[in-house]
Amino acid sequence: LFISVAFIVDSVKFLRIEFSKNYCFDSLESTMNVSKRAAEAMPESYCDPTKPILTLLLICVTVYVGVQIFNFKNSPYLTAGKRLLVADYALVVAVGAGAFVGSYCFQNIELTKFVVNESKPLFQIVEFRKPPVMSVFAALGLGFVVSFLFFMEGNISASIVNKPSNKLKKGSSFHYDLLVTGLINAILSIFCLPWLHGALPHSPLHVRALADIEEHIENGHVTETIVYVRETRLTTLVAHILIGVSVMMIPYPLNLIPIPVLYGLFVFLAVTSLGELQIWERFVLIFTEQSLYPPFHYVRKVPQKIIHCFTLLQMLQLTALCMVSFGSSAYLKMLFPFIIVSLIPIREWVLPKIISKRHLVALDGDH
């Protein structure tokens, strides 16, 4: 849920910046108390509401198109296999639709796009220097924090992917994944390229894209069950090859995709991943009449008050994570991995004193 919140927060921040730079909420005369002649002397770019409004429109278009196609799998049209095939391409179609609206329908409006310095080469080996001794120790500290974050993200992603409900046949490889991630990141650092790490919610969505899913209706509620997952490395290999090929598409045609479309893509990923999160299911139950609760396994085993208590405690922990991660202080953000680690003793030692272990296992155990 934190990743979904982070995507939405980043999109809202971008939208707020666009409105603050280009949108005038009052007329220049009433706000700044200047004469008409002085107002006419202002540059045109000072107040151009078309840019932020179009930015908002592109984000909404991308999210709406993506969600509608993603939910096509629940429609009565075509066959089940074809519905899933269409739903798998929701992301591509959403980006294409947003790019078409922004770059073609409103081509006269200049939007925020990729800024590419074509004077610099695509690949450049980092320049090695002999730093001061204190810089070495500072780099070690920062490297430990980043490595610790990669360790946590990798294990969290692997745990979600390998949960029993996905019915994977091949075993997990936590240590091997960390070793390969470290080796690849060492090579990427030499060429000044972004690091590789476990990704949420991309990893669970990738598993669902390779899965055969059956729908069951119980008491009027539709539940999805994964029957079989095609466990292959080819899809990830092809996806990363295409990511590498996309470097050759800079600046054209990637600059045809406005930046607001990408932020709409973030919101789409956040919205579509909510359905797979139990914490979101339990949060919705707080506002749902008890007689209308879906037939979840924990609803049958845990009293209503304990479910809501556990959910609120998790929301408090989520709030603490958001305060640290979205704060203005860079030093505060460095504590983010340690805040995540602190959740482990809270779960193991603090929560069992508030909620019985039997109920905790029913709420967040492997099912």
Topology order in helix (H) and strand (E) letters? HHHHHHHHHEEHHHHHHHH
Largest sheet descriptor: 2 strands, antiparallel
Give the class from helix and strand content and strand pairing: mainly alpha
Q: Could you tell me how far the N terminus lies from the C terminus, measured between alpha carbons in angstroms? A: 19 Å
Mean residue pLDDT:
80
Strand content: under 5%
Q: Any idea what the radius of gyration is?
A: 24 Å
Oligomeric nature of the chains: single chain
Structural notes for this entry:
- Mean pLDDT is 80; it is low at 27-45.
- This protein is mainly α.
- The protein is globular and about 65 Å long.
- Helix 1 runs antiparallel to helix 4 and helix 4 (50-70) runs parallel beside helix 11.
- The two termini are 19 Å apart.
- It has 17 helices and 2 strands.
- The protein has a two-stranded antiparallel sheet.
Keywords:
367 residues, mainly alpha, two-stranded antiparallel sheet, 17 helices, 2 strands, 62% helix, globular
